[in-house]
Every structure is written in structure tokens, then in C-alpha cells.
């Protein structure tokens, strides 16, 4: 293996399914070497890695919980060993839970939601900035945080804790973008809307997108690949004067 990858390197947390997997595959097609983190689904992670390699790029699947500081450190150490660089971090890992009214939420559920959806991205960004920042002799880079339209809409009667955790991620995006703007790092946020992914099953309603699609101005749900294209555009040189920006991929909702 090369001590330093000659291709740009992207890390996608939660990269074994849904938007993360679509982003990994598209990134490989665009010339990135790809690292993905995942928590439990080895088969899905290996399938994504195989697709990356089939596109002629190097792949590194790493089992890591992004809400665990020790595992995050180990994840970035693995990237250092395999690639010797990181150019783009996509903070995509997230969890949702069963639809519920606010007064029925348990403390344990809220704690887990914020640990993974808000604190996890901060932990990953800390590690990325230490490697990207000009202050640390880095070459610069891009951090893309994956939020949700729910941060704007609130998700009443369904997932107010999820929406709140994504709102926290958006505030972090604004602050970090300003903090590292003169260190060669851009920080942006993508807000997916109703996208056909497995996440809705985790919320107890696999067919949720079809139920709500009439409320979307474009009258359809989105595909993971449509979100992936937005992510990789923001990560590209075409977006070189864009930071602290939010890009909705919501069909107009």
C-alpha cells in the first residue's frame, strides 16, 4: 500500500447503507479512495467496499461507533495507516427511534439520540480538523454534516428528539465553519427530506415516504443518490467559496 494515497480520501460515517452507501459509491466513481464506518452490518459494509474497489478505488471499512471517543480515535488511526491523509469527512451516521409523542420519550432514548446524532459528529470533526487544518500542517479539507429537514420542521408527534439532535448539529456546523474558515477547511450541511432509505423502518413505518409524499411540492420522495450528488458537489472544488451553508435536498418541502 502507498504510505500516502495519491487520490483524495473521503470518510463517510454510517457508510454501509442508505445515503452513506450511495455517497461511498458515487465518491469512488468520482475518484476518491473511500473509508466508511459502520456499527453492526458487516455484510452491507463489505458490499459497499467491494463496489468501491470495483470502481478502481481503495476501500477501508471500519467498525466504529462514532459516539465513542476511543472508537473514533481508532477509526482515524486506521485511516492514517491505510491512506496517510483525509480530505473530506461526511458526518452521516445517525439513529432514529419509534415514532412517539414528546411526553413519552425516555431519557435513555434522548441520550442515545444526541450521543450519536450530535456528539458523534463533533468527535469525528475534532479528529478531522487535527489532520486537515493548516494550523496542524494539514492540506485543508471539507466537513459535510448530514442534518435533516426535520431540524426546520420539528417532526411533531413523531421524532422531536431526532429533530432536536439535528438542530444541534446545524448549530455546530455554523460555529465550526467560522472557526476553521481561515485554516483551509470548509464546513457545510446537507438537509435531506423524505428519502427512500431503511431509516423509516427503524421509526416503525417503512412506508412513511409514500404516506407523506403528497405534502412534498415535487410530489415524490427522494433517492439516496440524489442526496449523494449534493454532498459530493459541496465537497468539490466547484463549491470552493461556500462554507457555513445549508443545502436542502427535500423536493421543495
From TrEMBL:
Record carries keyword Oxidoreductase: yes
Superkingdom: Bacteria
Alphabetized UniProt keyword annotations: Oxidoreductase
UniProt cross-references to PROSITE patterns, sorted A to Z: ADH_SHORT
Tagged with keyword Oxidoreductase: yes
InterPro entries per record: KR_dom, NAD(P)-bd_dom_sf, Sc_DH/Rdtase_CS, SDR_fam
An example Gene Ontology molecular-function term: oxidoreductase activity
Every Ketoreductase domain range: 8-180
Similarity section: Belongs to the short-chain dehydrogenases/reductases (SDR) family.
Identification of the protein by name: NAD(P)-dependent oxidoreductase
Organism listed in the record: Rhodopseudomonas palustris
Amino acid at each position: 500500500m502507498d504510505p500516502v494515497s495519491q487520490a483524495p480520501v473521503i470518510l463517510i460515517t454510517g457508510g454501509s447503507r442508505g445515503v452513506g452507501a450511495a455517497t461511498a459509491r458515487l465518491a469512488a466513481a468520482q475518484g476518491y479512495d473511500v473509508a466508511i464506518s459502520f456499527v453492526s452490518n458487516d455484510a452491507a459494509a463489505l458490499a459497499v467496499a467491494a463496489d468501491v474497489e470495483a470502481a478502481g478505488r481503495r476501500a477501508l471499512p471500519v467498525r466504529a461507533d462514532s459516539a465513542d471517543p476511543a472508537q473514533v480515535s481508532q477509526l482515524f488511526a486506521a485511516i492514517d495507516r491505510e491512506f496517510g491523509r483525509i480530505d473530506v469527512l461526511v458526518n452521516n451516521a445517525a439513529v432514529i427511534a419509534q415514532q412517539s409523542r414528546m411526553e413519552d420519550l425516555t431519557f435513555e432514548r434522548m441520550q442515545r439520540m444526541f450521543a450519536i446524532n450530535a456528539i458523534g459528529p463533533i468527535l469525528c470533526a475534532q479528529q478531522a480538523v487535527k489532520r486537515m487544518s493548516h494550523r496542524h500542517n494539514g492540506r485543508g479539507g471539507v466537513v459535510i454534516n448530514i442534518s435533516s429537514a426535520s431540524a426546520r420542521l420539528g417532526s411533531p408527534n413523531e421524532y422531536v428528539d431526532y429533530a432536536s439532535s439535528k438542530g444541534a448539529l446545524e448549530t455546530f456546523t455554523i460555529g465550526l465553519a467560522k472557526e476553521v474558515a481561515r485554516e483551509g477547511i470548509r464546513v457545510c450541511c446537507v438537509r435531506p427530506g423524505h428519502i427512500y432509505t431503511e431509516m423509516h423502518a427503524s421509526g416503525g413505518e417503512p412506508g412513511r415516504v409514500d404516506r407523506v409524499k403528497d405534502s412534498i411540492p415535487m410530489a415524490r420522495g427522494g433517492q439516496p443518490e440524489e442526496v449523494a450528488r449534493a454532498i459530493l458537489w459541496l465537497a468539490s472544488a466547484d463549491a470552493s467559496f461556500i462554507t457555513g451553508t445549508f443545502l436542502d435536498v427535500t423536493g421543495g418541502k
